[in-house]
Amino acid sequence: MKYEVDQINDLIENRRAIFPKQFTEEPIASEVLTQLLENANWAPTHRRTEPWRFVVVRGEARARMGDILADLYLKNTPTEKYSERKHLKKASNPRRSAAIIAICMKRHEELLPEWEEIAATACAVQNLWLTATAYGLGGYWSSPSVIKSQEIRAFLELPEDQICLGFFYLGKYSSEHPKGQRNSIAEKVRWLND
Ligand SMILES: Cc1cc2nc3c(=O)[nH]c(=O)nc-3n(C[C@H](O)[C@H](O)[C@H](O)COP(=O)(O)O)c2cc1C
After folding, report:
1. Which residues face 139 on adjacent strands?
2. Is the entire prediction scored with pTM above 0.85?
3. How far is it, in rounded angstroms, from Cα 95 to Cα 162?
4. Considering only CA atoms, which residue is closest to atom 19 of ligand 1?
5. Which of 51, 58, 53, 77 is CA-nearest to residue 145?
6. Residue 143 CA, ligand 1 centroid: distance in Å
7. pLDDT tens, 142-161?
8. Ranges of each domain in the chain
9. Bridge partners, residue 105, by sequence
10. How far is ligand 1, taken at its centre, from the CA of residue 115, in Å?
11. CATH top-level class of 19-57+97-176
12. For ligand 1, atom 18: residue with the closest CA
């Protein structure tokens, strides 16, 4: 057998959402980021539309992104719901990350329904996430409603035929690896044998 199945099982089970507050703020080498993206690119794709697109936000652009997210929070949150902690988090999450990978998708309306391209893009994200886990990196997929906003589209310089499906916050972390939790697969599967 070419692959160590036990290792792959372990990798999949131990992929976790790790949040920016756990990040150490150390940089991640460009070669590693490139490998994450290369692996994302091997996702399955119906009719080979390869709809996933990524925008890697690094360096000073992280602070710009944090400021935009904080401004949008302020603009969209009614006074009675305002939380200073959340407001500050919007600004600090990108700054605490080594990189933020905006998860985007290019539509091929004439070829496929949208759900198939969203599904393919999610497969690409899983590849990226598992690769990050293998490198010992932390990260998670964040999907705030502002991903649809003009401000975020302008920041990412998104073309008309693309949408943003979220941000993958990425960083090194030194805290304990969180324990995962799932209900049994037996509750979610029915076997038809005859
Ligand atoms: C499409 C998608 C969107 C997500 N959006 C968010 C989000 O906005 N905020 C968040 O805290 N986690 C988000 N997550 C991550 C989940 O919270 C996380 O996967 C879940 O808590 C289970 O934890 P685990 O992945 O470590 O097992 C998202 C995950 C997916 C697949």
Report:
1. 170
2. yes
3. 25
4. 17
5. 77
6. 8
7. 999 999 999 999 999 999 99
8. 19-57+97-176
9. 52, 163
10. 19
11. alpha beta
12. 17
